[in-house]
Amino acid sequence: MAQKRVVGKAKLQVRGGAASPAPPVGPVLSGLGINIMQFVQAFNSATNDRKGEVVPVVITAYRDASFDFITLEPPVADLLKEAAGVEKGSSDPLRLVVGTVSPKAAKAIALRKMEELNTRDSDAALKVVAGTARSMGIRIVEAGSAEEKAIMAEAQAVALEMEREAEEAAAAAQSAASESESDESGEASAEGETPKGDGEVGSE
Predict the structure, then answer these.
(1) 116 in Cβ contact with 70 (< 8 Å)
(2) pLDDT tens for residues 9-25?
(3) Are 80 and 105 in contact (CB under 8 A)?
(4) From CA 172, how far away is CA 159, in angstroms rounded?
(5) Which of 7, 77, 102, 202 has a Cα at 20 to 30 A from 193?
């Protein structure tokens, strides 16, 4: 049997069981010549047990307008956010810790993603997970331990300090803007004045 000719591929991230023709799905599939509703129905059926998860999907389009797709595990970052119970990573991961995950949870993520990380070494996969966690401001530490409590106490103090710094920066910016407006107003006023000339002296 002749192999079908591939005309294009696309990789998307879609919520499990929740694909729709709306962007980004619709425009991408339209560009590949794929029947959008056929994909939506097939994807939602295949990922109905993964509702709420961000599901990476690789779609292959063929010349005869058919297609197939494979679904992957959620990104490491999403799995870490779920495990840590946070909505997003840190805006400044070197200073601010936003959450923690246990070594057991980190290892479970590594094993889940190991195949997609192109390694059969669980330690190597765990290093990838740990690196991603650090870049997000998430620390791998035993839940309920003294170390975790110390980390989160320090994180709270850092968060308050960063909030104070942001308020001071905003106040300084507002003050600078007000001074600039005052200077511009003064210059405009000075430019609008008409110099008084000497009056003509009439002959007596």
Answers:
(1) no
(2) 999 999 999 999 999 99
(3) no
(4) 20
(5) 202
